[in-house]
Amino acid sequence: MFKQQFKTSNNMKKQLLGFVLVLSGFSATAQELDLETCLKMADTANLTIRNARLDIASNEKQIDSYMSARLPKVTFAGDYKYNAIIPGQVVPAAFFGGIPGTYSTVQFGVPINLSNTIQLTQILYNPQVNYGLRALEINSTIIETQHQLAVQEIRQQVAGTYFNLQALSKQQSFVVGNIASMDKLITNMEAMEREGLIVGTEVDKLRINRLSLVNTRETLGASTEQLENLLKILIGLDPNQPITLASDALVEKTILVDESAIAYPELDLLEAQKQLNIEERKGTNMAYLPSLAFYAAYNYNYNIMPKDDYRTGIESAFLGLQLNWTLFDGLEKHNKQKVNAFTAQKIANQQELTQQQLEMVTANAKKQIEIQTGSLAIAKEQLVLAERVYKQTEAQFNEGTVSSNDLITADNSLQQAQTNVVAAYVQLRQAELAYLKSIGNIK
How far apart are CA 432 and CA 195, in angstroms? Predict the structure, then answer.
């Protein structure tokens, strides 16, 4: 039986060890991300967007808090008082049958007094409460619009960073291929040098070019690491979590899928600010009206005279209405209305300016898409020609009809053409992103 238990325990340990190894292997595996996944992760984990959602939740609670002003308030007050010297009061002596025209000092009360009061207050009419509630509702629209703007801004950053990473990956593949081709050439040249067919400086020229390619590869690697760290921050990933991008050549695909949904949250924000300005003007006008409240209170006083061992309680209760009305405020509300009018003019001017700017940005972005599309076509054609020239020059170099300088020139032209193609793809995608952001449609 002991052997069976030991065997069972051993198997459990092996299973647990295997489970731990699986988990550790899973955590070390790089997470593959496509653009859609990155955007979804940013929507839920990006700290800027999360703060924007917290602003929405906070405003909702502010509305709930403001609504509580309409509910009755119940307060309790307790007071303990010891009169070391009982206060006195001057009264006419005739009040006690004394000589008219003379006065006496009389002490009222006892040394110890305990007072307890509970009071209920209910607002019956307060025009400022309704104004404040409406202002908070409009502020909800403002905060929602700011959330939309934050989402569009972060999505543009995520997509832009993603495309730059894909471009770097493409550029790195070009450089790695160029290094491999250069290594073959150097190997052939070294063999020719050993046979005395060429001088060593010809090989050194290629080695210098190879070192330049290696340096480019390292620079691209460092840039990739920096952009990956930025992407992790944008989408809320752990900085130590390795990632890889989906190899779908997305940078070569247009993102202009749906251009029909056009929204200008910037204009929506200004419109909400305009409505808030109107409500502020109404609220200032409503401040000329009085407010009315109902209140009721119950009080119990307990009085103690220790010297005479005297104790007694006195009850009191009352109901009332309280009217508050500011008849003159030193022209405060009048001046507020003037400020409100200036603010309304500023908002109207800002609406017109923003409309013009958005139309200009949209038009410029569409024009930039056309320009970058043309630039991409030219860059592709240049790459085809550069590859053809390089292959021909390489063949001629192997035949000994051209110098290494010609080969290096052709190689540099090929590298430049490769860089131009990658840059053209990125610039085109960035132009498309700018256009989609201008119409509030980055999805």
Answer: 56
CB 206 within 8 A of CB 190: no
Tokens of 53: 């959602």
Question: From CA 318, how far away is CA 226, in angstroms rounded?
Answer: 73
Q: Was domain 32-71+126-290+329-438 assigned CATH 2.60.40.10? A: no
Stretch(es) of the chain classified as CATH 1.20.1600.10:
32-71+126-290+329-438
The pTM score is 0.77
* 43-67: pLDDT as tens digits: 999 999 999 999 999 998 888 888 8
**Distances 254 to 167, 257, 372 between C-alpha atoms, Å:** 14, 7, 12
Q: How far, in whole angstroms, is CA 83 from its chain's centroid?
A: 60
SS3 content of the chain, % helix, strand, coil (to 5): 70, 15, 15
Helices 332-399 and 265-286 cross at an angle (nearest 10°) of 170
* Residue 311 contacts residue 303 (beta carbons within 8 Å): yes
25-49 mean pLDDT: 82
Task: Name the pLDDT band for 26 (thresholds 50, 70, 90).
Answer: very low
